[in-house]
Design a protein that fits this description.
The chain is mostly beta strands and 303 residues long. Strand 17 (222-228) and strand 18 form a beta hairpin. 42% of the residues are buried. It has helices at residues 7-15, 126-131; strands spanning 37-41, 53-55, 58-61, 70-74, 80-86, 94-99, 103-108, 118-125, 135-138, 141-147, 162-169, 172-178, 185-191, 196-199, 203-205, 210-217, 222-228, 237-243, 254-257, 264-269, 277-282, 291-296. It contains 2 helices and 22 strands. A 5-stranded mixed beta sheet has the order 2-3-4-5-9, with no helix packed on it.
C-alpha cells in the first residue's frame, strides 16, 4: 500500500489532471525522449493491483493490503480468465509477484508502519495455477522471512523496512525495500527453497525515490526497478535499468522518467517482445484508472 492513498491522494489530484485510458495500439499523448507508456483499462476487481507476472499467455496480478488471498489471470482482452484463491494464505499486504519456470512467488511484504519484523512469501506451482479452469483454489508453500537488522523496538515513521519489490535473479529471490527515510533501496537476497530464513541487507542503492516494483530479464541480464518520487505534488514516476553480473552494475545504471505520472505499482519484462519492452500496471488513483501499460525501451541506451 503506497503513500498516494487517503489524504495524500488529494494533494496529487490538485496538481495533476486525471489521465484517460487508451488501447495499446494508440500513440502516447505527449512524446518524450524516453518513457512514454501506452495504456489500457483493466477490470475494476484489480483496482489495487500491486504485482505482475507474465506466464502462459496471461497477465497475473494481485491486490494489495486487505484484499482477498486471490491471484488473477487477465488475458490480452483485459478480461479475468482465472481467479484463484490461495488456500490457507492471508493477504496482510501483498505487494509484489516474482516468477521462475516452476513457481509464482507472492510477496506479502508491505510494511508501511514497520510493524513486521517477519514477512511472508507464498510459493505456488504454475502447474497448480494452470490446472484451474476459471475459478478455484490451490495450495502454496509459505516462506517466513525475518529481517536480521530490524530494530528491537521497531521504527514507526521514516523507516526502511517497507517492501514492494521482489524478483528472481538466477537461483535467488532479490527483495528491494521502499525506504521512507532516505529514498534509497536495500537489497536482501533470499533462498528460494528455505521455508524459514533470516536475512540481512547486502547492498544499498541511491535510487532517489520509493521503489514499488522490480523484474530481472535473464536473457539481457538487465534488472528494472520501478518507483516514484517522494515529492507529492511535483513528483515523477521512473524506472532504473541496471546491468547485472553477480551484483548490480550500478555505475552503469540508467534512470528514465515515465509519462504519464501515475501510481505505477508493478513491472515485468515482456517475454514475447523484442527484449526491449516492459509491461506495467497502475492502481486506480486520482492520476489514472486501474491500467496496464506498455513501455518501449530505446535499444541504444548502452545497457
Amino acid at each position: 500500500m503506497s503513500i498516494l492513498k487517503g489524504a495524500k491522494r488529494a494533494f496529487l489530484s490538485l496538481s495533476i489532471m486525471m489521465a484517460g485510458c487508451a488501447p495499446f495500439d494508440e500513440e502516447p499523448q505527449a512524446p518524450l525522449i524516453e518513457g512514454d507508456i501506452t495504456r489500457a483499462s483493466w477490470p475494476t476487481v484489480v483496482q489495487e493491483t500491486s504485482g505482475l507476472a507474465l506466464y502462459a499467455g496471461l497477465n497475473w496480478t494481485v491486490n494489495d493490503s486487505g484484499g482477498d488471498a486471490v491471484v488473477y489471470g487477465i488475458n490480452d482482452q483485459h478480461a479475468i480468465a482465472k481467479q484463484i484463491t490461495i488456500s490457507g494464505a492471508k493477504n496482510v499486504d501483498w505487494e509484489s509477484l516474482a516468477q521462475d519456470d516452476e513457481y509464482l512467488y507472492i510477496a506479502d511484504c508491505g510494511n508501511n508502519r514497520a510493524r513486521r519484523a517477519v514477512v511472508q512469501i507464498y510459493k505456488v506451482a504454475w502447474t497448480s495455477l494452470l490446472a484451474v479452469d476459471h475459478e478455484g483454489s490451490v495450495e502454496a508453500l509459505r516462506m517466513n522471512i525475518r529481517y536480521a537488522d530490524f530494530p528491537a523496538l521497531g521504527p514507526r515513521k521514516n523507516h526502511r523496512f517497507d517492501c514492494e519489490a521482489l524478483t528472481v535473479v538466477d537461483d535467488a529471490l532479490w527483495l528491494f525495500t521502499k525506504n521512507w527515510n532516505n529514498e534509497k533501496t536495500n537489497l536482501y537476497r533470499l533462498d528460494k527453497s528455505a521455508a524459514d530464513q533470516t536475512v540481512s541487507s547486502e547492498q544499498v542503492y541511491e535510487v532517489d525515490g520509493l521503489i514499488t516494483g522490480a523484474d530481472f530479464d535473464p536473457l539481457s541480464r538487465r534488472l528494472v526497478l520501478l518507483g516514484y518520487d517522494k515529492n507529492l505534488i511535483f513528483g515523477q514516476s521512473f524506472i532504473w535499468l541496471i546491468p547485472v553480473e553477480q551484483q548490480l552494475l550500478w555505475d552503469r545504471a540508467r534512470r528514465i522518467k515515465l509519462y504519464p505520472y501515475a501510481q505505477w505499482e508493478a513491472i515485468a519484462w515482456n517475454p514475447l517482445g523484442d527484449g526491449n519492452e516492459l509491461i506495467l500496471t497502475s492502481e486506480k488513483s486520482p492520476l489514472l484508472d486501474v491500467s496496464i501499460g506498455r513501455l518501449k525501451i530505446q535499444p541504444d541506451l548502452g545497457l
